[in-house]
Write a structure and sequence with these properties.
heterodimer, A: 265 residues, mainly alpha, 11 helices, 2 strands, B: 262 residues, alpha/beta, 10 helices, 10 strands, 22% strand, Energy-coupling factor transporter ATPase (chain B), cobalt ion transmembrane transporter activity (chain B)
Chain lengths: 265, 262
């Protein structure tokens, strides 16, 4: 199940969507989040679905693959749908079950809201599937740069993000080693009640914490001797190239938003 | 040339000295090995040189200039260091990012940064791995990247603080081969810290440390012949030295020479 999860995963590729500037992708996703709320009837929602399908095609992803990877989200979507089904009132009564009624407004709002949520999940998933975490970090740093004026430590936050990403596999390996070492000493993690299982995690987490602090200290020394002194006077190895196609993406996104606004009822 | 003069250091004041009146000269372009058991003070020495530890007694001179608080940051740029743990010194998310990290910190312009990163990766035969993430590299490869990161800074002195002790024998050989290549180019002074006597064979000068003191110093041949000092320092003698000592009355000979004699 977990291996099929797509949230936050990156799948390398060379499609047009992969090659867009990550900044363009982030801005486009934010625009889309607003545009989604412009739609208020079938044509609008139809266009949104069509848009996402086109995007999936352009990113070389198969819709079936996306659907399988987002099954967990489906539970959330169904929950939303049923909440609206039972709680939104108005229109004609479709089913009168005595203590509950399902009314036509409820069905329609349920479907609309579910589509809206699904579209938001899909577009963010398409973004993370086609953009490496490193590129995303870079893009966030560049986009948030104006926030430095109000003393947000943008560079430091971005560096923290990229170091965290870099250490995830290292710490995973370490966790595995500790689990093996503790198992060899007779710990069991998979048996007993929930509380005893949670308690069994202590001998994993304590060594993990201690070694993380040691790593952090060594890393800090390594960074210092390589001349790290914060952002001042620093140059950048990675550059983001904003091209014509990135501007086009944003223009198309705005045109799409205008169309949805115009056909509103 | 780096000179240490009567260098003394204690981790906590009043406690026993991690370094006890160390005096040592290191010449430009030499490969100097510092050998010692755990706690002999060999790592403390380079930590002081790198400015990680302060409040020492004694004098350090770099090219005749006395190291002090004002010029430490400037002089430190001439040194680069590779630490023991290959994971904990890998800052970048990919190989090339890591090599570029030090250059970024020093404000090197981007075109030059790209050129120097490539050249440094080429020197350690890791250029084809430039976009790899550290989790996909072996320990030896990670240490080679660490050496590339150090070389990219074009240091006068490259310090390796037990850089081979956490990697497999294959990776160790690769690292030593690269060091030999750097040594042959003759520009960079190598300070190589180890507790493994088999790794010092290629160095010009070797220093044995024990409990914060230098107990023996000389060429590799001289050191190998001084078996008493080596044993007193609880160091493991290389197999060919043990063999020649037992069979041929202790006369020193290199591995190849011994093979020929036998």
């Amino acid at each position: 199940m977990l291996s099929k999860m797509l949230l936050g995963r990156y799948i390398p590729g060379s499609s047009i969507i992969h090659r867009l500037d990550p900044r363009a992708k982030i801005i486009a996703v934010v625009l889309f989040m607003v545009i989604v709320f412009f739609a208020n009837h079938w044509t609008g929602y139809g266009l949104l679905i069509l848009f996402i399908l086109t995007l999936t095609k352009m990113a070389d992803l198969s819709p079936r693959f996306l659907f399988n990877g987002l099954k967990l989200i489906l539970i959330l979507l169904l929950f939303t749908f049923f909440m609206h089904l039972f709680l939104t009132k108005g229109g004609t009564v479709l089913i009168d079950g005595g203590f509950f009624t399902i009314e036509s407004e409820g069905v329609i709002t349920g479907i609309y809201i579910t589509i809206r949520l699904a579209m938001l999940v899909l577009i963010t998933t398409i973004m993370t599937l086609t953009t490496s975490p490193l590129q995303l970090t870079d893009a966030i740093e560049r986009i948030c740069r104006p926030l430095k004026a109000i003393r947000v430590p943008v560079h430091e936050i971005a560096l923290m993000m990229s170091i965290s990403l870099r250490f995830i596999p290292t710490l995973m390996d370490e966790t595995e080693k500790i689990i093996k070492a503790q198992s060899a000493r007779g710990s069991t993690f998979m048996a007993g009640s929930l509380t005893s299982r949670l308690q069994a995690l202590t001998p994993i987490f304590i060594p993990l914490f201690i070694s993380s602090f040691k790593r952090a200290e060594e890393l800090a020394i390594a960074m210092e001797v390589r001349g790290y002194q914060g952002e001042e006077g620093r140059t950048h190895y990675r550059v983001l190239n904003w091209e014509f196609k990135d501007t086009m993406v944003l223009i198309l996104m705005i045109i799409f938003g205008i169309i949805l606004w115009v056909i509103r009822q | 040339m780096i000179e240490f003069e009567s260098l003394t250091y204690s981790y906590r004041s009043g406690e026993h000295r991690a370094l006890d009146h160390i005096s040592l000269s290191i010449h430009q372009g030499d490969w100097v090995s510092i050998i010692g058991h755990n706690g002999s003070g060999k790592s403390t020495l380079v930590k002081i040189l790198m400015g990680i530890l302060e409040d020492y007694e004694g004098v350090i001179r770099v090219e005749g200039t006395v190291l002090d608080d004002e010029n430490r940051a400037e002089l430190r740029k001439r040194f680069a260091i590779v630490f023991q743990n290959p994971d904990n010194q890998f800052v970048g998310a990919t190989v090339e990012d890591d090599v570029a990290f030090g250059l970024e910190n020093n404000g090197v312009p981007r075109e030059e940064m790209v050129r120097r990163t490539e050249a440094a990766l080429q020197a350690v035969n890791m250029l084809s791995y430039r976009d790899h993430e550290p989790s996909r590299l072996s320990g030896g490869q990670k240490q080679r990247v660490a050496i590339a990161s150090a070389l990219a800074m074009a240091p006068d002195v490259l310090i390796l603080d037990e850089a081979t002790s956490m990697i497999d024998p294959e990776g160790r050989r690769e690292v030593l081969d690269i060091l030999q290549k750097i040594h042959h180019e003759g520009r960079t002074t190598l300070i190589f810290i180890t507790h493994d006597l088999t790794e010092i064979e290629q160095s010009d000068h070797a220093v044995i440390m024990r409990e914060g003191r230098i107990i023996s110093e000389g060429t590799v041949e001289e050191i190998y012949q001084d078996t008493d000092a080596l044993i007193a320092s609880r160091l493991v003698l290389p197999f060919h030295i043990k063999l020649s000592k037992r069979l041929l009355d202790g006369a020193y000979m290199s591995y190849d020479e011994l093979v020929r004699r036998l």
